[in-house]
Design brief:
3-stranded antiparallel β-sheet; 9-stranded mixed β-sheet; alpha/beta; membrane; about 350 residues; transmembrane; 12 strands
């Protein structure tokens, strides 16, 4: 069953209500992780969407915490002798106790300084806290069959390090690698002024246009999953013929359904996908330079952000929780592929 809803990460509170409204143009619900006993500081618009059951809170259970601990521990074991610059402790951050498996505390004695304040919040380095929260969002999404999404380019850019379990070397752009982590961007989806649309108007639209929203969401998912599975040149050639056409047709149906929003300049959505060198070779612009940008039928673009150390592992371990969507609501992000590479490279090597 394809995911029909999206999990917001890496924060508890939404940083921008326009992002929530943008996400609801495609997904049925926006979820967020809210610790037991914590009341999010929501705007009136977000409260209205909560009341309409479009925004839902996730309360963690023991399995969430146990699985996150196990996966975070495995990641730390994997990077023990090759700690990325972005996980070297500096400033402090805190994690709500409801998000933590108790087994984590003695483990922290081995990897860095930490303390627990009078409200039982765990304080540890900002970098380790960030890594733990990325793992938590991945586990929660997998257990509940959710996609994940953010409006934070920095978070989206370094998320692959955690979701792909540090499957990258110091040299991130090896054009001879067998596979690459790529950005795939579908343009002209989210109205630029979506933040000005009231919660009431949005509810009317999402209830009226369920079929068009579902079709576009699923065709985007079909296309990216197809890209991730390509392993031979004959199969790769079907991308343009079948999946791209169906995706762009569904986008046109969706745009027509947007009524008075259809003529407003729109912003893109981007997701990350593991793609083989063979698949990239079908896009002429990327045959010699995978780290460029290829435009497919005008409004769909693809480009490699970084190369995998072990592409077989990337393909073998892929599941829906590995998908993460970036929806930029404040401004159109120019060349998200290059900007994401810069941020990931700084995270690993600077």
């Amino acid at each position: 069953m394809k995911p029909n809803s999206i999990l917001y990460y890496p924060h508890i509170e939404f940083q921008n209500e326009a992002w929530v409204k943008s996400s609801l143009l495609l997904w049925d619900h926006v979820y967020r992780i809210v610790p037991e006993g914590y009341s999010p500081n929501d705007s009136d618009e977000i409260k209205a969407l909560v009341d309409e059951d479009l925004v839902r809170d996730i309360k963690l259970d023991d399995k969430d915490r146990e699985d996150t601990f196990e996966e975070f521990l495995k990641l730390c074991d994997r990077i023990e002798n090759r700690m990325p610059a972005g996980l070297i402790p500096s400033d402090e951050d805190r994690i709500h106790p409801g998000k933590i498996d108790n087994r984590l505390y003695p483990f922290l004695d081995l990897i860095g300084e930490h303390f627990i304040d009078e409200d039982n919040w765990l304080h540890l380095s900002k970098e380790l806290a960030r890594g733990y929260m990325f793992k938590l969002s991945q586990v929660v999404a997998r257990i509940r069959n959710l996609n994940r999404g953010t409006d934070d380019l920095d978070a989206w850019s370094i998320n692959p390090y955690f979701s792909e379990n540090a499957n990258f070397g110091d040299f991130l752009q090896d054009p001879t690698a067998k596979g690459f982590f790529c950005s795939v961007t579908l343009e002209d989806i989210v109205p630029q002024n979506i933040g000005e649309v009231s919660a009431r108007e949005l509810v009317t639209f999402v209830n009226k246009r369920k079929d068009e929203r579902k079709l576009l969401r699923e065709k985007f998912d079909d296309f990216t999953n197809h890209l991730a599975k390509i392993s031979n040149i004959q199969h790769a050639g079907q991308v343009n013929e079948d999946f791209v056409k169906e995706l762009l047709d569904s986008k046109e149906q969706y745009k027509k359904s947007m009524d008075r929003w259809r003529d407003i300049k729109c912003l893109p959505i981007t997701t990350g996908v593991p793609v083989s060198l063979t698949a990239l070779g079908t896009f002429a612009a990327l045959m010699e330079e995978p780290f460029g940008i290829a435009s497919i039928a005008g409004s769909l673009t693809i480009g490699a952000i970084c190369s995998y150390v072990d592409f077989y592992r990337a393909k073998k371990n892929r599941d829906p929780s590995y998908a993460s969507y970036l929806i930029s609501v404040d401004k159109l992000c120019k060349n998200v592929t290059w900007q994401s590479y810069i941020r990931l490279e700084e995270f690993i090597n600077d």
